[in-house]
Design goal:
19% of the residues lie in helices and 27% in strands. It is α+β, with helices and mostly antiparallel strands. The chain has a domain at 52-170: TATA-Binding Protein, CATH 3.30.310. The strands form 3 sheets. Strands 5, 6, 7, 8, 9, 10 and 11 form a 7-stranded antiparallel β-sheet that branches. Strands 1-4 form a two-stranded antiparallel sheet. It has a two-stranded antiparallel sheet with strand order 2-3. The radius of gyration is 20 Å and the shape is globular.
């Protein structure tokens, strides 16, 4: 006796959808190119802290401008020297929850690992940081003050599945990027 196998269009559609979602995720979190960190005389992050490199920021055309967001007045971009996780990629599109920022990135590092690495890199670059705060969504907020007290920044690391958003608010009291 011969049995017939019934096809199920729902299974095929589900597999095609899963394949498309996987391809989209892979495209959004593509491998970062290796980068090096300049040598400094100050102590760097410990071996357990992820390597930090200057931001992979592509400057927008024209001069940086100041915009106002809920956090306060910020520059609409970051200086190339702002420390971010080594695998940070510009978020495309930017984090819709956070809105306008100086820079929005994705990282494959865990929230704690990324936040601790950014905090260590900011400290190594001469910023002072306040204790990190924990967000309701499991994210971390890093408040930092630059060389002058008027130069303040806020970095948020927010979980989102297997990638995480890193959003930076580079205060208008900081040097123009």
């Amino acid at each position: 006796m011969q049995t017939q196998r019934r096809s199920c269009p729902t299974d095929v559609r589900a597999r095609v959808g899963l394949f498309a979602a996987t391809a989209l995720l892979a495209a959004c979190t593509g491998a970062a190119s290796p980068a090096t960190t300049p040598a400094t005389s100050s102590p760097g992050p410990s071996a357990s802290t992820p390597a930090q490199t200057p931001a992979a920021v592509t400057p927008a055309p024209g001069a940086a401008t100041v915009v106002t967001v809920a956090w306060g007045e910020i520059w609409d971009r970051l200086p190339a020297s702002f420390p971010l996780p080594s695998d940070a990629q510009p978020a495309q599109p930017a984090d819709p929850v956070e809105g306008p920022s100086s820079g929005a990135f994705t990282t494959g590092l865990g929230v704690d690992e990324a936040a601790q690495g950014i905090g260590a890199a900011l400290t190594g670059a001469g910023w002072s940081i306040e204790p990190m705060t924990l967000g309701e969504d499991g994210g971390r907020d890093i408040s930092a003050v630059g060389a002058s007290p008027g130069c303040q920044s806020l970095v948020t690391v927010r979980p989102l599945g297997s990638v995480h958003f890193v959003t930076v608010y580079y205060g208008a009291g900081c040097p123009r990027p």
